[in-house]
């Protein structure tokens, strides 16, 4: 490489030539890429700032437009300027005619067209004129147009009923269309008030605690607070689940057992309804009784209350508890011919011992076979059809300590053949037991501490199916040799018969199968009988459906017939082949909701139900 001095001399020398310029070393190259990158980044940031300013300006213009639209525009409609208010009294008297005033103010800058006002009346309100409409009680009024700056008012009236202290509510909705617009706008309002007074009051006289199953007498009292006579009053009772009504004075309406007619009630006069009943349930379970007094419309079965009252009671374990089980169960459905064992569990829940206790269990029902009755340490009274235990027959009854438990048993059979009559009651068994102390319990003088228990057991019907096979004298004509011959077809008629004793049955189905060597000829009698055949499985199904009580006893059995065919093979010579297998039937008892079933045996070519077939015609021949 030439020195710098030599190169300098040559540089200024005329006609001097130089070769190709040397590429500078890599370490001495100018890094232009960094400069270009910085220039492009700076340009993007400027564009971003312009974009953000544009977005901010757009948002500001949008907000200004909304403010101008709502508050400042002299030409755009302002929906907030339409106001609806309801005025009325805050406390009313039940049954009075009440008026509400709905005020509408159009403070907007435009006309309200096609304006409609809908007013919703409170629950338990009745129109001033005419009957109360079905469903929601509301009134719809067309107001037409409401000019800008105009205020109007509409009055609505109704009779309002309800118990003292209840809160009621009315509401109104104004629907309208701004002038020059197609959209529908709505404004609503509501008003609450309370029922402070009533022309007649109702209240309970009922203990706060009751013993489970204890018979109780209580009263529903009512008093007039009106200045004039109240005409045609009624009372309505709502009893809790588990309440067993015994009696009432006066009696309820025959067609509506929870409505009482009280007649007219003069000013300041009072009256009462006396009731008697039992409450069943669990220990410490709460029960709510409700009573109302007011106006009843028998035609619509509707009740409007002047006043309402409710009271909650708490159930307690009885002083002497009685619990009855049938075959170890609280609920048991028996079948004809069953043997039922009853266990009666007793307990002294008193804080004192009881002496010389006695228990009497009455037995009622048309399904009981009293000849089969067996009693453990007790005696049967034929006159009252009851079993009695006392301290002479059951020694533990001499003294029962507090919280002590005791148990007695008896049993009987259900009749195999139940009572059959078109007007006979459905078969059932009812056991009613009463447990009493023999002497007054100390500290409970004048208090009925006896315990009681009841058990009702339904008895299911008896379902039967009978299969028969005929060759001669059948509803379907048969053909073929008798006795049956190898290689030739002989046909037979199969008849299925159903019998049902005392309860209606639903969903009755009969099933059977044909052996593989048998054929179903698809000849059915009656023709509309619902009989089907599955060729692969050989199953025959007869869907008989509903079978009334007494079928096969009080009325003819239900029957269906079909034809089958037999072509014997060599290996059946000298035998009586089965032509249909066992028939099985099932159905639901509509009284006990139990599924009943029965079966009948297979049938062979012996044809035991066809007396015209001789002994020599039964076995297969060559």
From TrEMBL:
Protein's recorded name: DUF11 domain-containing protein
Alphabetic keyword roster: Membrane, Transmembrane, Transmembrane helix
KW Transmembrane helix (keyword) present: yes
Bilayer-spanning residue ranges: 50-71
